[in-house]
């Protein structure tokens, strides 16, 4: 887990759609570099496993093609790409040459972009929409605060990503926080409610509200609710492991937008374009000098001197061992137990989801869910939190949610999902969407929506859509890590019911009267429904292990499109 | 009630706005057919009464003219029209000739439509908006699932129908379910919460959720709450009567859109254009073969064979007497009373509104309303359910609702409504709407909004607007059926108050101090307010029975428009 | 307080952006008129103080320049301007000449406007947006119902005023009700929930619902909740003082629109353009004659005679002393105390905010807030009500709200506010806004938003934004009136926490561990945080009274704009 092929990294680059030729060249060039045993500082790839280069290679080429047809707006920022490129170089043997290549490429892209903005000849090339409105591969995550020691990537507003996500889900955003070992995340607040799920690593999360401070030791599987507007900071005090958190955000001012506010920080306004650092600025800096002098009751010179000590390092900075040790001390809880009324409302701001009893489980998989009813702090963001763990070569059977829509992010393993969605064609405009929606003639026909899944990929399962999650065996030599793990948030979760469409238990088809089954399916269906003895999770067919290979490359994203 | 004039049916056709000339011709041609004693299989017209052809004739001509100026997008689908045309033919003596005429007409329309789409010369003909933004005659209902044995028609999204319905009401949709005697409605679920009001007939409604099945015997006046995502099916086991249901729908994914999901069903994808059938497809069909084999633990061949038995018949199919009998058995309730905790939350999923005490009533009419507080299952769709029954030649006096907006559908009788609305002109664009809304100069002036009412017509009464409902005497020989009956849903109903503006009781004008009345109305108003001794419902003036004829043709839809 | 300079009034006119030259001329001409000792009938200026003409002059010129660049749509109505102009003339010595000037000006503007509408050459002049999306000076309030005896001015829908106010706040509107002494406000209801805060004067507010009437004696600091749809009327029975109310409105039909409905009133439809009167029309007038005759059980002639007595006077009319006396009698409360169950839910429809204990206070200022929890009637509009009172030359220290967004209106005094907002540039289009929002590169940088404050100015403080309010000393000879007083409404107030960023108490910066402070700010910050001994309100620095003059003219509205 601590080593990774350079090949792999360069393949990641090859997914670029902007300059496909260059991308292809870098794959070729990449093959000339040594392939294994490079240290990891990259973020996304940190949890990936060894020896999967060939498979990944194919995969990323597929995706390259896929992305080529994607071209959604948020991806057109070449700097995000540069960021990943630069990062990959840190594990390269010849870092400098690698970085030079990244910059050259960025230059080309920036130039091309500026030509476009000046109204070049490309203007008639209309960007086509994302052909799969419920699947957002990791490459669509936006770099919010890049730093040498980690990063904060955010899924764009769902309404902007997809014309079909216009409901309640548009009020939520999804983010991924990645911090290198031995780091401090600068204090900040956002104009949003949020909840974190720790997907890897250990650390301490602290927030300050009015005249109280709360500190939480956090580890994998923990769910922490951060109240809106709480000034929050974070340490990863581990010496070698990343601390990663999946974050759900519900903005309070504008439904799909939120902003970070830093009390401390220093921004170099004219930093060269190549920097991966997104500096932060102190919000104190906007106030008039007179205001600041009066507020702090301190002469201007002294204020300037004190604040001038801030260094431009970005949102995530290195901290000394002593500082980490001091900051990882959690508030003693023994006296809080003696004085339980002191902050009884805070006692359930954190809990470990994976230590609960799974909601659905058998030998093949586990489905954990904490509803807002069970974990009261989720009530005001009105979501449930889910962790699904599916063994390799296993699937969670077809099912649909009665009311809740799930926003899901893969945190380990690989696989795919298939979902039945009302038929849609790729709309070119708002009018076309409306036209489609108005058409009665297409009612009652479905299209398959599917997508490959690995770390960082996001997908949405709207209420009512039948769906399966499939875990793929990407490496037979390794057991533990092959499980597909997904963290999810259930919007509109109160009173949601998961209706299974196959399996022994909770299968709604088995509940109907014989006559209803006959009228619906014909006579033989009844007997057939009793063939499956497993519930919830079932292994992919074992008798056809030969054919099973095909699982890894189903015909992705086959849409039945209207002629 | 079981016979109907062909004349009547053809008049319905004549309402077409697209090819007015053809429509006029079909009226003429229709006159050559025998007029009475045809069996009913048509849906809308099933509850209409005999002998009203002359009146209806005039009416539909008026409406024809009205619709001619309507041309809202959702009506431009000639297939919906074909559906009604085809249906009317089933009651014709020469069915084949009639069907041929329908097809010819559809052909003409489809051709015209395709010319338009190819960018013909009509492009400068901008469609004008609906001139009455709160009234949607039955012709604006969209055909969602047409079938030989019934149909499912839906009012388009209110935001799309009217620029003035942009508030909370836009989250609701209204539908009408019509099933012929002896039929089974295929199981399906929708991504929406819903509630049904039975407006005619008897049957059994069943839904399956997780590992429970609920069956309800239903009859006129029943209100049934179907939880979001419940897989629902329905039988009409009566030998001769239609079972009709008005349905309120609150989508859970996208505020104004919902989709049906069928586990069973078979779709012929290239069916000829003339079919009235909207086939349904099984959502199982989108999953990969491997997935289905694993899910059902059944070899592919066996699966295909079982599923191949489905017949393409649409959503509503004929069922045998034995099947109907088996499916109309309701779950025994005796043991549920012994084990009351088993599903206590379901006991009030159904109730009969008309067996309650009316909220407002006198000898002339009755107003039933079940608030979410009284019928808890309405709480999460947050609506009240209303049935208004107004005797012939009677009106419900001017009143306004303090907070709730009502979405109303006529289920029997005829009449009209008048409503005072802030003045508006017909906006040509979004900008014009905004401009109007910004103009202070028009404040404090009102316009009359009105519309004729008969089965299937929908109208909206927004909070605050003074309104009257008037029942018209369309046939003196028949008493029972002449009452105007309206089913309504009150959006934002909790704590709504109905303020009456006339009548003996609950008349807010009578509550003001004498000085306030004088300053507001002048001196003579006070005495005048005591002239009316009736409350809530009052007869139309009897002394002027001559002039009373004018009720039936007030100057409809008179708008004071800006020059 | 009862006299005012004509100069002052004419300066108000000079703020016009449409015809700047004419405006400048009227300033010059104004100087020829006597300056003092004119009676007040103007509304906004009624509470302004004497002797501030020079300062005000500069101020209004600044604002004139500012407004010149504002040009938002709702301000382009020259009639609103004419209204203020006409009103100012009533206090002039030569009223007729003054009025003639106003009319001439209106003529010019109307002509110019009609040329524009006919598609003149100005079409390429795109209106630029409001450069400060959170500040709406009094001049942006729309005249809703102008009358000789007062007026009703309303802030336009926030979504229309600013592209950045698209969240929950867009469901609320803010209005100001101004009534001359000895007046009656005609009964009306709105399709909205509302709450009033009395900012000056005394009177009686009455509303009628169903079969109940509620009357409240009201005075400065009172908060009154008027239920949606309640027919409301109001008297100002004082012989010389205005009664002014700030009103929060939450529409129930369409999120940002509401309409007034008057049972009585008479409208002259073709009144000459120069009238300042906005007549009101009775909503009864739209119903058919037959309907009205039946409803009132009264012959047409009698009805017409009774309703013909209404006079066209607008919404606010003069009342006799006897009428005022009769209407100012409040319902006796002694028997209500004996029969407490009669209307126990109404007992808290009113309370006095300033008689409560302030939430934050010291010698320099007071912050009163009633949360929905404390004042249950605010629960269903879901806002808190705030009154802030800040001594002259004092500020409320930098702080931010964790969840609530405040909509604030100045009711007396002068000053300014400064707020840290995420950096934005002036968007020219919806696309530009989206582009900005998508850009990650600007994250973590702030811009200063600020605005001068005096009576009628509105500003919005979104959740999360650090802000200061500063009270300015505009007149040393007068103590009482110099306090800056602001009335505010907190949207999403439940569980909101005010986090102070400076001061002795509740300063969240002081809550962090030393190590966190060091990592965030550097070493010297810790000591510096203890310099300020005051909390919440602090005086502007006294040692630099020379430099203090600069407070009155900071560099307003400095935006760091993107090149």
UniProtKB/TrEMBL annotation, chains A, B, C:
Highest classification ranks of the organism: Eukaryota, Viridiplantae, Streptophyta, Embryophyta, Tracheophyta
Listed SUPFAM superfamilies: RmlC-like cupins (SSF51182)
Pfam families according to UniProt: Cupin_1
Family per record: Belongs to the 7S seed storage protein family.
Name of protein: Beta-conglycinin beta chain-like
Gene3D superfamilies attached to this UniProt entry: Jelly Rolls
Basic and acidic residues bias locations: 109-119
Annotated spans, Disordered: 109-133, 541-563
Cupin type-1 domain mapped to chain residues: 139-304, 351-529
Annotated organism of origin: Pyrus ussuriensis x Pyrus communis
Superkingdom in the source lineage: Eukaryota
